[in-house]
Design goal:
Blueprint: H1 3-14, E1 19-21, H2 22-29, H3 33-45, E2 49-52, E3 62-65, H4 69-83, H5 86-92, H6 99-110, E4 114-116, E5 122-127, H7 142-151, E6 156-158, E7 163-165, E8 168-173, E9 177-182, H8 196-209, E10 221-226, E11 229-233, H9 238-244, E12 266-271, E13 275-280, E14 293-298, H10 301-310, E15 314-319, E16 323-329, H11 340-349, H12 352-357, E17 362-365, E18 390-394, H13 398-413, E19 418-422, H14 431-434, E20 439-445, H15 450-459, H16 464-468, H17 473-480, H18 490-503, E21 507-519
Parallel strand pairs: 5-14, 18-19, 18-20
Antiparallel strand pairs: 1-3, 2-3, 4-5, 6-7, 8-9, 9-11, 10-11, 12-13, 13-14, 15-21, 16-20, 16-21, 17-21
Helix pairs in contact: 4-6
């Protein structure tokens, strides 16, 4: 069986007949007559079709399906899908199946997601996109950040309230900054032991090519005077440096395999367009996970949505502690960077309460990025207008489409001309994307350490706001105050920065999010991490006895 014969059979079924012309077959498959005839010869040998060549002017060649073909196709589907790998199965699902056969196949596929205990304990889960790099320096998407923290460890970990030792078991202040003592007996996934040299390499790599130079600027230099001792040259106080060393970009990686080999509880075993596989590792710092293998199979969005509605999902509500959906003005490429009065008018035209009325995950009106301290900011009146079109970009998700439609409607009601277009998550920071936008709808979920996450949001090259506002002198001056101010006063600085972004019409916070994370029933009450994803190192299957 192949995609060609399945699509031709589907067409004949749709048309209410058991045959179709050679010309129709060429049109459906996109193959030449010569290629189709070659396949038809094979299908005839298998007894699936009968081919009648058209003789004479006006007589078309006909491909007729034999009466038993549907039964053979059904039996082939049952046998093949039960034995094939998940990668092969997802490829087969891309074929143009008749609806009844497709639904039968989907049920077989869905039954294979979840826990599998044949040979080893395996967790298989569908994804609607190919997962990106897990290199700690390049991550800007929550899913990849969550997985990266399962592959790599850091010197310290932030538990939400305080810093905990991790790869470093002790830290002390010195005349030059800090001295960290590294745990012994920890191994990388390739079997090499962790030493201070690996820590020095990873942190110096961060300082040289990291995307957050402002945030990690207080770390001036990293050296090692002994095999398990790391010296960090800095003028910042200990508590701040420890929190920095608990951030994802400070993850310790193996030289030459920066995005793939770490010391975390899972090692990266396979990465392809169709499949992403993690395997439990037992020689690292943390305890070995109970689950042996975790696989993410790339699945079409259409099939994923149907699978999600058919499974008896538990709904677990998870409210983000900080962050917001927002609109950012393109202050790097758009004509709006010179038109503050127009930006003010755009801001005045937006009614945030209307977004909340759309319901879903829209939790409360946002005036900043911290829900608990979100207070209304008086806006500068704006009556300016322009006939120039506003190019509004949004992500290709249903919530983003709804937000973009409402935003465009509100701006058009204020006599602005709005053109709406889509950008992909992967292309968010590409110059080609940014150059075609005046306004961009986006969202920021500040997890891990929310104070440092906010600073990263404003300064990182991996943040849309950080990238578009990196030339704003006033904002940069305000950011410098953080490194000169006691952390207890940072809440005041956060508020000053939020007020500046709104008053200068640079960023418009729209609403805070209360996310509903849907987990399949077979996961039970599995804990979730700071990114809202399952704690994969805590998944387990009860052994059959």
């Amino acid at each position: 069986m192949n995609a060609k014969i399945v699509s031709l059979f589907h067409l004949s079924r749709k048309e209410g007949r058991n045959s179709l012309s050679l010309k129709e077959a060429v049109g459906v498959t996109g193959y030449s007559e010569k290629q189709i005839k070659r396949d038809v010869k094979t299908w005839e040998e298998k007894g699936w079709v009968t081919y009648r060549a058209g003789k004479g002017r006006g007589n078309e060649s006909i491909i007729e399906f034999n009466p038993q073909f549907q039964q053979e196709l059904t039996e082939w589907s049952v046998d093949s899908f039960s034995e094939a790998s998940m990668v092969q199965v997802t490829k087969w699902l891309e074929w143009d199946w008749p609806q009844d056969l497709r639904e039968m196949i989907q049920l077989q596929v869905w039954g294979r997601f979840g826990f599998d205990q044949t040979g080893e304990d395996r967790f298989i889960f569908p994804r609607t996109r190919q997962l990106g790099s897990l290199d700690p320096l390049d991550i800007h998407i929550a899913m990849e950040a969550s997985l990266s923290r399962n592959v790599f460890d850091r010197l310290f970990e932030w538990d939400g309230t305080k810093v905990q030792p991790s790869l470093a078991h002790h830290i002390e202040e010195t005349s030059f900054g800090m001295r960290c003592y590294i745990r012994k007996g920890v191994y990388f996934h390739n079997g090499m032991p962790l030493t201070a040299k690996d820590v020095v390499y990873s942190l110096n790599r961060l300082l040289k090519r990291g995307k957050q130079p402002w945030l990690f600027g207080p770390i001036e230099q990293v050296e090692t005077p002994a095999p398990f001792v790391v010296d960090i040259y800095t003028k910042s106080h200990r508590a701040y440096i420890q929190r920095l060393l608990a951030q994802t970009p400070t993850s310790i990686t193996y030289e030459g395999a920066e995005g793939t080999i770490g010391t975390g509880p899972f090692k990266l075993e396979l990465v392809s367009k169709e499949l992403f596989r993690l395997r439990a590792f037992d020689r690292g710092l943390r305890p070995r996970p109970s689950i042996d293998v975790i696989e993410f199979v790339t699945f079409s969005e259409q099939d994923y949505v149907k699978w999600s509605t058919c499974d008896d999902h538990r709904i677990k509500q998870w409210v983000a502690e900080a962050g917001a959906r927002y609109v950012v003005f393109n202050m790097k490429h758009s004509w709006l960077k010179h038109e503050k009065a127009v930006r003010n008018a755009i801001q005045q035209a937006i009614t945030k309460e209307d977004f909340i009325a759309l319901e879903g995950e829209r939790h409360q009106v946002a005036h900043g990025f911290f829900p608990d301290s979100s207070k209304s900011i008086e806006l500068t009146p704006g009556k300016a207008h322009s006939n120039r079109p506003l190019k509004l970009l949004h992500l290709p998700f249903e919530t983003a489409r709804e937000d973009a439609h409402l935003l465009a409607t509100q701006l058009r009601a204020a006599s602005f001309c709005v053109e709406v277009d889509v950008y992909s998550l992967e292309s968010l920071l590409w110059e080609e994307t940014l150059k075609r936008a005046d306004l961009i709808l986006c969202g920021e979920m500040m997890s891990e350490d929310v104070d440092l996450a906010f600073l990263s949001f404003l300064t990182s090259e991996l943040s849309l706001v950080g990238k578009l506002l990196d030339r704003d002198f006033e904002l940069r001056t305000m950011m410098e105050k953080y490194q000169q101010t006691d952390r207890k006063e940072w809440i005041r600085l956060h508020r000053e920065v939020e007020q500046y972004l709104v008053e200068e019409a640079l960023v418009i916070p729209l609403y805070h999010v209360a996310r509903e994370r849907r987990f399949p029933s077979y996961l039970g009450n599995v804990p979730v991490d700071v990114f809202g994803h399952p704690r994969y190192d805590q998944l387990w299957i009860r052994p059959s006895v």
